Amino acid sequence: MVAGVVLYGRVSSHRQRAEGDLDGQMVRLREAAGERIVVGEFTDVASGLSDRRQGLRRALRACQAESVTTLLVTHEERLARFGTAMLAEVVLPSWGCRLEIAGGDEELDETGDGDLVRDMLAIVTSFSGRLYGSESAKAHALTRAVKSTVKKGNL
């Protein structure tokens, strides 16, 4: 059996898509797939908090095929803001598949507290989205402010 890989990319807004962020993700994923057979490429333009992402649903269905061994994403939060551990440790393995992260977040990894900062950003993103609406300027400003604070080392 030849090992197949499913690629999944996501951006939160049509602006990000227009700026080429989604295309860039897919290029990195194709490179990371290397010589493996790409069974499917799936994308969404939606919040990582949304459970109505058709691209993700299709990607997960494709992962159920016996020929698929890997779901490849650029960053864990591209898959989902919360619950990725459940997908990576329970759901995907039950299908004989595993989650592979193609690109790290170099800015966060330099701090040494990357996991903690990612968790904090996920929480801020979630609550600001609920408070202001996930696509509002206030929600984006709050997330940028937290990221800026982390980059400056003021955390």
TrEMBL record:
Q: Which UniProt keywords apply?
A: DNA recombination, DNA-binding
Tell me which residues make up the Resolvase/invertase-type recombinase catalytic domain.
5-131
Which protein are we looking at?
Recombinase family protein
Kindly list the organism's lineage: Bacteria, Bacillati, Actinomycetota, Actinomycetes, Kitasatosporales
